[in-house]
Records
---
Amino acid sequence: MPRIAMISPRHATGELARAYRDIRPIMPHVGKLVQICSIRPDWVRLSVSNMVFTLEAGTLGRRDKELLAVATSRAGGCRY
């Protein structure tokens, strides 16, 4: 069971629901890594902006960056 309370897009209301709607064109599936920020809708937007920047900037391709992120998370036992 996660120790961080998360609000899924299905249960979001108000500003959080708007934040989830706003990021949908960029991130159709709102993963747990974003949902852990759900207590602060401004953090939801910021975390998605940071992810997009990280995946798009630099010389390493997005696919390789995503593979590295998955491998790192798995090696560290991250549940999010």
---
Amino acid sequence: MRRKGELSPAEVDRGWPHQVAVPAKTSVGPGYKIVHDFCEELSLCPRGHSFKRDREWWNVFCFAEKDHAEKFTERFGGE
């Protein structure tokens, strides 16, 4: 169930198709501000998602522009 006005997963996939997964430890705690400051001028979606793989949590950052996803990957790694 979503709140009124919240983007659905399908809307995120359509509008921000270039997605990069990074280990959650990269973007939490002190890393949160570093990542979000870096993304301030990029086409980052206001909503991302997370998943767990091999007992590790990953955060997914979604971008409208392919080159923005590439810049993010160059800076923070990810898949």
---
Amino acid sequence: MWTCPDCARQFVTAKVWHSCIPRRAVDEILAGKAPGVVAAYHALEAMLRELGPVQVEPLKSRIGLKAGSTFVSATFTKSAMRVGIVLARVVDDPRLKVDSYGGRHVHTLQLTEATELDDADVRSYLAEAYWLGTEGVGKRIS
């Protein structure tokens, strides 16, 4: 792991390009969001911590969740949370919007309530992403 000397963020790749953005508190990012969205974020974080160690990295406009590398990110509107799940494959699920880059595929799922995480497929995608963030670090999979 490489730590940026300016912002103290950690990365798998040394001297990787990034914006040195002051960190924000999770509560600051969640302020003013709908109660269901706040509950969904806390349920997501708890679910991911059940998989193993997770580093929470709240930045200007998103919260990154890292296990070696960032494997899940969350962005917010007042009424929804968009969860980006990084996988090595494209999943055919109508709830997911997929953006591909560099052998990785970010599957975005929009949530408004914590109960939407109570889906076996979603839990499976999150576990797969966690593995990729830890075991799959540095491995290009297409």
